[in-house]
Fold this sequence. Notes:
Blueprint: E1 14-18, H1 21-27, E2 45-53, E3 59-67, H2 71-84, E4 90-91, H3 101-106, E5 109-110, E6 132-134, E7 142-144, E8 147-149, H4 172-180, E9 183-184, E10 192-193, E11 196-198
Parallel strand pairs: 4-5
Antiparallel strand pairs: 1-2, 2-3, 6-11, 7-8, 7-10, 9-11
Helix pairs in contact: 2-4
Amino acid sequence: MGALLAPPSRAFTYEIHGVGEAIRARMAGTSWHDHDARCPRFEALAYLAIDHVTMEATVARGELVVAAALAARTIDLFRRLYQLGFPIRQMKLVDDYRASDDASMTADNTSAFNFRVVSGTDLLSQHALGRAIDINPVENPWRKPDRIVPAAGEAFADRTDVRPGMIVRPGPVIAALDELGWEWGGDWRHAFDDHHIVWSRSL
């Protein structure tokens, strides 16, 4: 078994919008904070509605908030994943989990913008700038020899046993990330952050 399912016969569709009033109401005081000048203004963010393949091999519509300047590149990536037949468990705003990174990961939720610091530091995460996306955190956990996050990711600790939704190198998802210019946390050496992708180039 590999990381992919059969590609859908239905064409990929998406929408790119500004962050409207209803979405602002969901985010304010949760993933977005007006009391910190470092938090991107809503005008610098984009709300994306994106088709994705599910783990049941159907098609669902997910949602992400990313940096507005990164919106088109994000669509290019998820179009490629859709065409490959790469399944995604679910794609909801982290606000549905009260902006808790741990809760979102435990729910195997794919998400992007969340104004927060890197765990254990006072440094802003790339998620805080809308430049990072976490994809299928259970199938692609954060890994060190003595710890796996989320805990359910232990079932996917063996990265040679490739199952649907996993991102591994070499593989078709990594080939797409490399081609489109995304950096993959699974290439890091201080810890393997298999669900984390980031746009580290200029926008």
